[in-house]
Amino acid sequence: MKKNVVLMVCLFSLFVVIVGCNQEGQSTPSSDPVTSDSSSSSDQEEVIIKFHTHGNEASYNWSETLAAFETDYPHIKVELIILSEKGDTNEALQKLDLAAASGEQLDVLMFSDPASYAERVNAGMVAPIDEFIAEDGYLVPEEYKVDTQIDGQYYALPGKFNPWYVLINKDHLNEAGLPLPEEWTWDEFVDYAKQLTTGERYGTFFHGPQNGGWMEYMNLALASKADNSTFIKEDGTANFEDPMFRKTLEIRVQMEKEDKSATPYTDIFSQDLHYRNQFFNQDASMLLIGSWMNTELGGTDQFPLEFEVGVAPYPANADSGETGYTPVTTDYMAVAANSELKEEAYTFIRWYTTEGQLIQGKNIPSWNEVSENEFAMIIDTVLEDTNNPEKVDKDSLINVLTNAQSSKLTPPVSGQAEIYQLVNDEYEKLIYDQQDIDTTIRVLQEKATEIIERNQ
After folding, report:
1. Taking the CB of the first residue and of the last residue of the chain, which one, N or C, has fewer CB atoms within 10 A?
2. Region 281-294 average pLDDT
3. How many CA within 13 A on the CB side of residue 207?
4. Is residue 67 exposed (0-12), middle (13-18) or buried (19+ Cβ within 10 Å)?
């Protein structure tokens, strides 16, 4: 294992050197504006851009999507390079780094999370696209729901829009005499979970943290903010003294220790519990999760749906004036820094993150120009692939997805994975009654600061 790590570090270092050399001799992008008028491109010389992605055919419908693009832009052919047939993002990143280090042609790159995106921007793998955006004459914050800006520049456009939400068993709501929330706070979420808890089930299930992963469950109230919504502030310093991180810890402790409305942390590991089983088997009434679950809401052969499902928004912080903010996952569509076809690569990512999302028909787009009818059609298409779409409260799903907002992107710092594991370890000390909340916050702030300074 150590040998593999050393090899990867060496290869990535080689890549940085190669990119640096390539960038010195690159010309600036063409001043011709990108246009969707296919007639203007019919007499242009044909080029081939290479598109490296973690997405497989089943999840992204590439054959139909790319064929539509090449119809609109016949002079640009897209060579699809799927880096992981099973959609494993870690495998895909490793192969992408190897391709970059070996000097392979890179034009369009897809990243699945902000950390992977920001790290490769910092490494020089990704080109800024501000010039193309300016030539097109649009503003990213007005066009898209997800912020992709890093240090004042744009290096990617967002594809899908997968905000987190709360899935709720409506049968359990009716039993408890509770309405399906259209907007609510964390205090109300805690109260709902308490009222939904019975001798047979818990009010909610938190699927993390786990071994430095699923850290969304350590953000909770922190993630309901518009800015500085993660463990690291925009200025690169530790953010554990934020009152909303304290609120998150208080929520977790109260729900498990006092209200006993959340599945015990120890049970998750001793019984190897998974969120799909817990929700579809009705062992938990509410599930805080990402909207990748849209494709499963109506039930599947593996997880049949035997109750009515409602969707509630990610809870807000009381009296904050900020509503709709939630963790969001997207695909960061970028242009490679060493591409010799930057204009064509940009043309593709702009098309793909707009009308291409509608043709693909697999996810909710980040593009704000999607009409209500188009949005509803996408939802219908997604739900139709489930076994019982009629059991899903479609209106609540559309309402939540329409009003969700992404917080401002905070670029990860070096040592991010180490900080995640630190949070995981200190939380376990808290939930296992080895230390209190004050100590947990103090230790996290001090140790995270040490990690950040050590990696600068």
Report:
1. N
2. 96
3. 17
4. exposed
